[in-house]
Design brief:
alpha+beta; 7 strands; 163 residues; 3 helices
């Protein structure tokens, strides 16, 4: 019956026998040779397992990429379906569809500012930090308060909501 050693155990035994031989003990050459052969076979088996694991990991990585591509396609299809219903409801001016499963409705988005002529916006509405940009929050508040700001107007669009 053969005893199955772990690689580190074989390494320990080989080191011990080498030390014993260096200290003058005799008759251990055959044992050393057998342990070294076992060590090499064990190392080869471990590397075969490593190759197998690396190949398996590569297959998984390939499958991850395939699934990610599939997910992106499905998300794109789902987004198209959402936009399709929204577009057709807007076209027919349908505000709400009730069903036993959910309610589909067109809701107003929060008001936002549409800049149609940036050069006409007075300089006090620019947020100057590192990069020149328009502070639309201030413009929206001013427009809501009744002020007229050249180059800006309030717009309010609708989006599809599913509950």
């Amino acid at each position: 019956m053969s005893v199955a050693f772990k690689l580190y155990e074989l390494s320990d035994h080989i080191s011990q026998i080498q030390t014993m031989l260096e200290n003058g003990e005799e008759g251990l050459e055959d044992t050393l040779e057998a342990l070294e052969l076992s060590f090499e076979e064990k190392a080869e088996s471990i590397i075969k397992l490593w190759h197998s694991k690396m190949a398996e990991a590569e297959v998984i990585k390939s499958e991850e990429n395939r699934l990610a591509d599939r997910r992106k396609r499905i998300e794109k299809e789902a987004e198209w379906l959402h936009q399709y219903v929204e577009r057709e409801m807007k076209r027919l001016d349908r505000e709400r569809i009730k069903s036993p499963l959910f309610t589909i409705s067109l809701q107003k988005n929060p008001p936002s500012v549409s800049i149609f002529d940036e050069s006409a916006i007075p300089s006090e509405y620019f947020n100057i930090k590192e990069v020149k940009s328009i502070d639309k929050r201030i413009i929206l508040d001013q427009l809501k308060a009744g002020f007229e700001i050249p180059g800006a107007e309030i717009k309010q669009e609708r989006r599809l909501s599913i509950r």
